[in-house]
Design brief:
The chain is of the alpha/beta class. It contains six helices and six strands. The chain has one domain: Rossmann fold. The protein is 45% helix and 18% strand. It has a six-stranded mixed β-sheet with strand order 3-4-2-1-5-6. The model has no long low-confidence stretch (mean pLDDT 87).
């Protein structure tokens, strides 16, 4: 069953992540990728406030990342649209603590998990991941970003 994730809702309720962090979305995406790899599951993460909106470069084959356009819609609207359009609703796990989204998902007989519960799972699984599976560290990413910014 794939995940449909209310991105900023999860960030706001996950210890170790902060909506004040300018890299909060990429940190959540990295954690979700690790979880999906272990569980052999796909996910779609939807965030508010992307310009111009749409599918992000953070996406991979297993984790699709979408930003709602600030001018045209919200993450909540996009999530509810996806819930209503889902052809296999009982095969979807919706991650949110937003009551409106949770009600829409339950109305389609989808599984709903709270953002806080999912955040705990992400952090617990991340802490249990062996170092060599974790990939590139934040420090390594910063070093590479500095190299490419200079060119």
């Amino acid at each position: 069953m794939p995940y449909l994730i209310d991105g900023h809702n999860v960030i706001g309720q996950t210890r170790g992540l902060s909506l004040e962090d300018p890299d909060d979305e990429s940190k959540l995406v990295r954690l979700v990728r690790q979880l999906c790899m272990r569980e052999r599951r796909a996910a779609t993460i939807i965030f508010d406030g992307g310009l111009p909106g749409g599918v992000s470069d953070l996406s991979t084959s297993d984790v699709k990342v979408i930003f709602a356009s600030e001018r045209h819609t919200s993450a909540d609207d996009l999530i509810i649209k996806r819930i209503n359009a889902e052809k296999n609703p009982q095969g979807m796990i919706v991650i949110t603590s937003d009551q409106k989204i949770a009600d829409a998902a339950r109305g389609k007989r989808m599984t709903v998990r709270s953002s806080g519960e999912f955040g705990k799972t992400l952090m617990r699984k991340s802490a249990a991941t062996p170092e060599k599976e974790k990939g590139v560290s934040a420090e390594e990413v910063a070093e590479w970003e500095d190299i490419f910014k200079k060119k």
